[in-house]
Specification:
mainly alpha; 5 helices; Zn2-Cys6 binuclear cluster domain; 165 residues
């Protein structure tokens, strides 16, 4: 995993590229979750107005994906579909109770810990003194991006996620 790469942090430029690219990816993912949640809401409204049923394929996610990997199909009304879909988005963002699957917030926390460590103890030679943060200095851009990504996910309309609780 790129977060744990032991090669990237050896040189200043590769550490900067690794950190900023991962932080940019995290920000894109956060905005993607917001879009998905809003699209679920819009689809539920559309399907309700059209009096349409929604179908969900349910299968085992432990094997490789294939056409036959969703052997069970469930038909629901649009509101039930929305509830299930938002619960899935919430699980992708915040994980499930047994922590058996990686999730977005755990990845962000892990990346944030790594970046703080890199800025406290630079991981290689050749890092400028300005790379090291000390108390009273402004946050580095990488940590600001991660904080913004967390705020973006939290900013999801609470009504979208309340239904998924």
């Amino acid at each position: 995993m790129a977060i744990d790469c032991l090669i990237c942090p050896r040189q200043y430029l590769s550490a900067m590229q690794n950190g900023l690219l991962l932080c940019t990816l995290v920000m894109s993912m956060a905005h993607g979750y917001v879009k998905v949640a809003k699209n679920i809401e819009a689809e539920e409204k559309r399907a309700t107005q059209a009096n349409e049923k929604k179908t969900l394929g349910i299968g085992d996610s432990s094997g490789p994906p294939s056409w036959g990997s969703c052997p069970f199909v469930l038909e629901t009304n649009a509101t039930e579909w929305k509830t299930i879909a938002l619960r899935m988005v919430r699980a992708e963002m915040h994980g499930v109770s047994d922590s058996s699957r990686p999730c977005f917030t755990a990845m962000v926390d892990r990346l944030e810990r790594r970046q703080r460590e890199w800025h406290t103890n630079p991981p290689g030679a050749g890092f400028p003194d300005s790379y090291r943060i000390t108390d009273g200095q402004p946050k580095p851009p990488c940590l600001c991006l991660l904080e913004d990504a967390k705020k973006t996910v939290v900013s999801l309309d609470p009504t979208l996620l309340d239904i998924a609780s």
